[in-house]
Amino acid sequence: MDLRPMDMDAITERSVAVSPELGPRAWAESSGGGTNSVRLLREAGLRPTRQRVRLAELLFGKGDRHVTAEMLHSEALEADVYLSLATVYNTLNQFTQAGLLRRIGPDGSRSFFDTNTSVHPHFYLVGEDILIDVPERLVLEQVPEALPGHEITRLDIIIHIRRKPGDM
Q1: Nearest CA among 129, 67, 25 for reference residue 36
Q2: Which of 80, 132, 137, 158 is most buried by its number of CB atoms within 10 A?
Q3: Which of 152, 158, 160, 159 is nearest to 11 (CA)?
Q4: Mean pLDDT of all residues in the chain?
Q5: H-type helices in 2-156, by residue range?
Q6: What CA–CA distance (Å, rounded) separates 29 from 83?
């Protein structure tokens, strides 16, 4: 096993970008809204239905962020996009399977969907139900070998924190 320090930024998974010039981040930073969301969905192998296009616009038009299905459903209603919560859940799961989102379950009962699908650590604020990116780079000294006959497919680091009693 290689015991050299490992920089989290150097760890790669299956590429997030749907093409070298168009991934979720590039899409969010460019103009064109609906046109870009249609292209993003098609290049991810998804049919650009009206619901998927509108949810992609809401998700990727605001940069890297963490949302729950309930949060996105609320945003959709505020934007006069009337979808059922079930449709939002289904669409988030489809986006995740297509590699456009990363699902993170910090407490086992609720899932957040991260628009930044690169390997990076998170803080989970216990009692506040908030997930945020750790702002500093994280260096791992050692990553364990996978069990015989297995391979590591993903690395999640979630640091659970809570406010100190006097700081509430």
Answers
A1: 25
A2: 158
A3: 152
A4: 80
A5: 24-29, 34-43, 50-60, 69-78, 85-97
A6: 26
